[in-house]
Every structure is written in C-alpha cells, then in structure tokens.
Amino acid sequence: MLTIGKYTLQSRLIIGTGKYRSFEEMRACHLASGARMATVAVRRVDLGMQEQSILDFIDRSEILLLPNTAGCFTAEEAIITARLARELLETDLLKLEVIGDPRTLYPDSEGTLEAARVLVNEGFTVLPYCTDDPVLCQKLEDIGCAAVMPLGAPIGSGLGIRNPHNLALILERAQVPVIVDAGVGTASDAAIAMELGADGVLLNTAVSGAKDSVKMATAMRLAVEAGRLAYEAGRIPKRLHASASSPMDMMLSVKRPGADG
C-alpha cells in the first residue's frame, strides 16, 4: 500500500490519461494496470462539457483523480489551475507542475517552490513534479508537500532512470513518499525505480504509446510489484569475483575415469 497524506492506495503505480488512441483503450489500460490513482491535465480537458468527457471513462469508485497543472509556466498559472481543479473535481489532491522550458519540459524549480508554498497553505495535498535534485526535494518536503516526484528522465522520453545516484540520495533523506515521475519507457525502468527504493512510479506515455497498450499496462503493474518485492527482500552485494552458490568444503570427491590411485 502507498500512503500519501490522508490517502492510502492499494497500488504503487499511478497512471496517466493522455495520448491514448481512445477513451475505451484508456479505461482498459487503467484496469490492466491495477492503478488506484490517475492524473488528469486540468488545462487540457473541458471539464464543463455536456457530452462525454474523459471523466466518464474513469471509474472513480476505484481510482482517485490526481489533477495536474500541466501546461503551466508560472507559479501564478499553476495556483489558479489548482484552485479550479479543486472546485470542479472536489479533491484537494494535486500534481503540481510548473514548467520552465517548453523544449525539454523540465520543471522550474523556483516556480514550483513558490506555488507549493501557497497551495500547501491553502490545504492542498501537493505532489510536486521536480528535478532529481536532493536539495530541492528536501525544500519541498519542508514546505509540507505530501510527496516528492523527481523525474527519472524528461517527460515522454522513455530514457529510463538516468541518474540513480541522485535518486538514492533523495530516498536516503526523504520522510515523505518519493514517486518517480517521467522518463519510464518500459517495464524494466519501472522495476529499477522500485528496486532503488522508490515508493511509487507515475507514468503515461510508456503505456499509451506502446504498440499494445493493455499488455504494457499489465507489464508495468507486474514490474512495480516485482521491484518493490525485490527492494524489500534485499539484494545480494555486488562482487568483483565469483562466489560459489554451494560451499566448496561440502562437495563430494569424484574420481575421474582413468585417474591414478
């Protein structure tokens, strides 16, 4: 189980809602993933439309909505979008995104800190998307964010965990959940994040952009579960040389054919 603020989830995988070929495919992927939280980009969805919308294809009895401020380039924009999301979706959960560069979609650290201070004080459960900077993550935690969400690689890049050392430093100090967000390309990337000790993984493009999205959603569910089990089990230390799996002093002495004696 994953606990974020006052919320407890039965899955450590958080999934997105963008870029699917159809709403029906998205719903099937959510089911296959086992995820119990899904992100929704508030600025990219007409939440007030009368016809069917993306929300009609999310089972809110099973899946918590995590509105995000994707597309916001200033703290002010993010704060306004967050307030709109809380009013329309009736939730205090928020994935905070303040983008600093439209080409790389890297977050603006100063803008993220500025918006986080305001939104935490307004009672939001803030999950900030941020760089894999241990100092920044500590500051966000000190402000009162319910989790920190360092990127594994640029959004949608599929490059996997590019800096496991920084992620390990963040995990070493964090007293709130650390959820790896962005850059996951395939199941092994998700497993690596979890084996390092991450509390969860948030992904979207790796599933929605796969040739068979439902199969990839299933693979991600299994990878997150396997990675967490491996972390809890504790891996063996890495060695420069071989280490026999059976004690050598317990081996039977076998006489080779034709040997003297």
Secondary-structure topology with pairs:
Layout lengths: L1 E3 L2 E3 L3 E3 L7 H11 L3 E5 L22 E5 L6 H15 L3 E4 L12 H13 L3 E6 L3 H10 L5 E2 L13 H10 L5 E3 L5 H9 L4 E4 L1 H4 L4 H21 L28
Parallel strand pairs: 3-10, 4-5, 6-7, 7-8, 9-10
Antiparallel strand pairs: 1-2
End-to-end Cα distance: 64 Å
- Point out poorly predicted stretches: none
CATH architectural designation? Alpha-Beta Barrel
Q: What is the overall number of helices?
A: 8
Order of helices and strands: EEEHEEHEHEHEHEHEHH
Which bin fits the share of residues in helices? 25-40%
Q: What is the total domain count?
A: 1
Q: Measured on Cα atoms, how large is the radius of gyration?
A: 22 Å
Beta strands, count: 10
Largest beta sheet, briefly?
Answer: 3 strands, parallel
Helix and strand composition category: alpha/beta
What do the pLDDT scores average to? 92
Top-tier CATH class: Alpha Beta
Major sheet: order of its strands?
A: 3-10-9
Query: So, the CATH homologous superfamily?
Result: Aldolase class I
State which percent range the strand residues make up: 5-15%
**CATH-assigned fold name:** TIM Barrel
Shape: globular
